[in-house]
Amino acid sequence: MGNEAFYPIGTPGQPWGAQERAAWLAKQVKHRSYAQDVLSAIDRLRDAFDVSEYGALTYGAEHYPLIVVRSRGWRDDLPVVLVTGGVHGYETSGVHGALQFLQQHAGEYAGRANVMVVPCVSPWAYERIHRWNPDALDPNRNFRKDSPAGESAALVNLLEPLRDVVLMHIDLHETTDSDESEFRPALAARDGKPFEPGEVPDGFYLVDDADQPQPAFQQAVVEAVAKVTHIADADARGEIIGSPLLLPGVIKFPVKQWSLCAGITNARYATTTEVYPDSPRATPQQCNDAQVAAVRAAIDYALAHRGG
User: Fold this and answer.
1) Which of 13, 34, 113, 239 could form a disulfide with 123 if both were Cys (CB 3.0 to 4.6 A apart)?
2) Which residue, among 227, 210, 140, has the nearest Cα to 175 in the 3D structure?
3) What range(s) does the Peptidase M14 domain occupy (predicted)?
């Protein structure tokens, strides 16, 4: 089935040009506030953590400071554990799960690890509940040094000095019904390709690094999250979003080859969470709690096995 049945912008079979991108951008509407939802929550953490700006984005009249939160009393002899959220702005529990972890649990690792959290990588997209940035680019295909996406370039620059130091990196995402109704059709239209419908998995799953798989690590995270919300089953083909199941609730991608966020550093333990907020079996708070459970389990496993 062609793009014309799925997306109103562009000509089927032809990639978007400047006119189509402008038409797409004109349709984007601000639904929520990065300053109120994210920056205000981070401000309340300043007494307990080191908070700093690692870059900024200016889109038209809008200016977005990019914020990283670090353990107070950072020590070079401690391992670094990294949490990122909001790479895709519409994936709400990634942002609020990261903030909830900071508020409730990050302090528990004082003296054991340097905790580094970037709660919202893509603030413009957070406000518009969207996957792309204003240039119709997906930040999670552009985490590389020469990135055309400002969100991605800023995070790559932040993490470059820690590239070989980070022990664990967990990147918090969601898979939503809008992936099939909006974002994948838009991607097909943007690139002038036919849209091939897929299946949205009902439940939580993880994405492992195909080039450096850590099955025991992934399993520990899945088992922790299973206490909070349900784990996605494979489809009739034994797959989740077109990828074979490695373990219950775990698939793998070549994260560095695809320039995904989880591949920015050379962390021994890396994973990408995928929460399903549209499930009738999960509440928004459960989604946030699932992200927090994943973060805690990932850090705990990495610290327990850092020498192994």
Assistant:
1) 34
2) 140
3) 30-306
Q: Cβ distance 296 to 101 under 8 Å?
A: yes
pLDDT digits (tens, 9 = 90+) for 236-264: 999 999 999 999 999 999 999 999 999 99
What single string gives the DSSP state of each residue in 8-62?
SSS-TTS---HHHHHHHHHT----S-HIIIIIHHHHTTTTTEEEEEEEEEEETTE
Residue 152 tokens read as 């991605």
Segment of 233-237, 240-244, 272-276 carrying the highest mean pLDDT: 272-276
229, 201 contact by CB (below 8 A): no
Which residue, 113, 131, 230, is CA-closest to 170?
113
* Domains, the chain, with CATH or none: 3-304 (3.40.630.10)
Q: Does residue 274 have an active-site annotation? A: yes
Predicted model pTM:
0.97
- Backbone torsions φ then ψ of 297, nearest 5 degrees: -65, -40
104 contacts 188 by C-beta, under 8 angstroms:
no
Neighbouring CB atoms inside 10 A of 164's CB total 8
Q: How far apart are CA 285 and CA 29, in angstroms?
A: 25
Helices (H) and strands (E) in the chain, counts: 10, 10
pLDDT > 70 in the chain, percent: 98
Residue that the structure tokens 């299973």 belong to: 226
**Residue 67: other Cβ atoms inside 10 A:** 21
Kind of pairing, strands 243-244 and 114-118? unpaired
Tokens matching residue 75: 């020590």
CB 106 within 8 A of CB 49: yes
Contact between 294 and 225 under an 8 Å Cβ cutoff? The reply is yes
Q: Is the pLDDT of residue 105 over 80?
A: yes
Integer Rg of the chain from CA: 19
Which of 220-255 are b and which e, b meaning 16 or more Cβ less than 10 Å from the residue's Cβ?
A: bbbebbbebbbbbebeeeeebbebebbbebbbbbeb
